[in-house]
Amino acid sequence: MSTEVKPSKNSLSNRERYWLFALAFGLTALLATAATLTPEKRGFGTHRQLGLPSCTFEATFGLPCPSCGMTTAWAALLRGDWRKSVESNLSGAILCVLAVAACPWVFGAAVFGRWPIAEPTGKRIAGVVVALTIIASAQWAWRMYEIFTHIKT
To answer: Mind listing the pLDDT tens digit for each residue in 80-135?
Structure first.
């Protein structure tokens, strides 16, 4: 009689666990970096504190791009300023919440070798990506509407 324990169907391979540790580390680094930034009062441009250039889209067209305010949203949310975060970039605020929730979930999967709570299937990941894309597009459309209706008046 063998005492060898066979991995269950839901067990993660060592390679998968390695990549999950890397992902957890990457998410933690992003969150830690955002937490050190001071959110810009105007709602975008916080990324400049990292030495990054101004938004090329804004510089070229004079209009904010769909991701303008994303870094500000993360920095504000991690300082507890939900309102500033959502006003800066709603999809950025949601993405930050997802990153905060994903860190312990991904780290737990890496440590224990199986997914706690729910496994991230292709359908679930696609659903999140589609939802964020719709939210970002709607927010950008609203920004453009506000800009162009303000120009006309």
So the answer is: 999 999 999 999 999 999 999 999 999 999 999 999 888 888 998 899 899 999 99
Which residue from 3, 31, 13 is spatially nearest to 115, judged by alpha carbons? 13
Identify the helix (H) or strand (E) that includes residue 42: none
* Distance of alpha carbon 146 from alpha carbon 149, whole angstroms: 5
Which stretches does DSSP call E strand in the chain? none
24, 103, 123, 147 from 86: Cα distances, Å: 24, 21, 26, 18
Residue 147 sits at the vertex; the CA angle it makes with 138 and 56, to the nearest 5 degrees, is 80
Residues 6+ apart with CB under 8 A from 82: 76, 93
Q: Is the pTM above the cut of 0.90?
A: no
**What's the Cα-to-Cα distance from 134 to each of 48, 127, 129, 137, rounded to whole Å?**
27, 11, 9, 5
7 pLDDT band, cuts 50/70/90, is low
The CA distance from 21 to 27, in Å, is 10
